[in-house]
């Protein structure tokens, strides 16, 4: 079953072929014909032509890669691995399809070190063109390390993702959640603030960071702009953001803002179970304001 799963993963690799790297004309002809056969599903004929191509040019990396794909298609895992490795060595990590195949083989064998090596090589070669799925699977690898108790390795992978892909939201968000689960709120805060500084715009990051400013650090003033942003954006965290914002206004003695926020909440949620408490808070804000004005 695992072997079948591997083949299914490999089959999603593109059958399109970039310019083949050989100066041997006969090898190129065999290769071009093999591509035709491969595309037509005639794998035995493709194999025959490719073996002739590598016989003519033993350093023909793309031909070895195509052979690996042929053997994946025909269920010959050992030969698939043999020729995938040969292709990778000859192409020196310059061909994304060769690296991807090595990653899939490492994943099949549950070789985390190989998955890390080839996964990051693929991200490096693709740069800003790397897909979210390609970045995301490296993050999943980090999560697996965390679940195994290897937090150091998880942090190393997250650090590389955040460094190389600073706008990838989920690296900041999920690493922060790991730290929160560990009750390491200082590290969680640092990661989320790094994401915000990098320009990541995500409601959940804003909400978690803003709530931590209130709950864990008692830095209520820092929470206010984040909660205001969530309310303005009509976020799914909007109602909770109101609660944090009202409390932050109380703690920072921002009475006028507190009055306005309470009124806004009551208008938007007249029948909510929190509305009676918000009405009480509104009256408290008004009394404080009256008291201050009477002393002027």
What sequence of helices (H) and strands (E) makes up the elements? Answer: HHHHHHHHHHHHHHHH
Gyration radius (Cα, Å) is 29 Å
Return the structural class. Answer: mainly alpha
**What's the CATH topology label of the largest domain?**
Serine Threonine Protein Phosphatase 5, Tetratricopeptide repeat
Overall number of domains: 3
Number of helices: 16
Helix and strand topology:
Elements (H helix, E strand, L loop, with lengths): L1 H10 L13 H15 L3 H14 L4 H13 L3 H15 L4 H13 L3 H15 L5 H16 L3 H14 L4 H13 L3 H13 L5 H13 L4 H13 L5 H14 L3 H14 L6 H20 L2
Short description:
It contains 16 helices and no strands. With 296 residues, the chain is mainly α.
Structure explained in plain terms:
Helices cover 76% and strands 0% of the residues. With 296 residues, it is mainly α. It is elongated. About 3% of the residues have low confidence.
């Amino acid at each position: 079953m695992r072997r079948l799963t591997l083949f299914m993963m490999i089959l999603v690799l593109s059958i399109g072929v970039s310019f083949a790297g050989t100066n041997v004309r006969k090898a190129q002809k065999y290769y071009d014909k093999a591509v035709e056969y491969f595309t037509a599903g005639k794998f035995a004929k493709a194999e025959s032509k490719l073996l002739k191509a590598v016989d003519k040019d033993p350093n023909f990396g793309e031909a070895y890669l195509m052979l690996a794909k042929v053997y994946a298609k025909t269920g010959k895992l050992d030969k698939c691995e043999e020729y995938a490795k040969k292709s990778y060595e000859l192409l020196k990590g310059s061909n994304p399809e060769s690296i991807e195949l090595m990653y899939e083989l490492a994943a099949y064998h549950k070789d985390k070190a190989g998955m890390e090596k080839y996964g990051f090589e693929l991200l490096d070669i693709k740069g800003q063109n790397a897909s979210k799925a390609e970045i995301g699977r490296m993050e999943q690898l980090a999560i697996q390390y965390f679940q195994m108790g290897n937090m150091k390795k998880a942090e190393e992978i997250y650090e590389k993702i955040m460094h190389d892909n600073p706008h990838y939201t989920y690296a900041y968000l999920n690493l922060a959640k790991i730290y929160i689960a560990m009750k390491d709120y200082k590290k969680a805060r640092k990661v989320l603030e790094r994401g915000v500084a990098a320009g990541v715009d995500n409601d959940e990051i804003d909400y978690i960071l803003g709530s931590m400013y209130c709950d864990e650090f008692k830095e209520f003033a820092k929470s206010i702009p984040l909660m205001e942003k969530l309310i303005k954006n009509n976020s799914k965290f909007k109602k909770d953001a109101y609660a944090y914002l009202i409390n932050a206004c109380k703690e920072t003695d921002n009475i006028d803002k507190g009055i306005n926020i309470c009124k806004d909440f009551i208008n938007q949620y007249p029948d909510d179970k929190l509305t009676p408490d918000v009405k009480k808070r509104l009256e408290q804000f008004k009394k404080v304001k009256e008291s201050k004005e009477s002393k002027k």
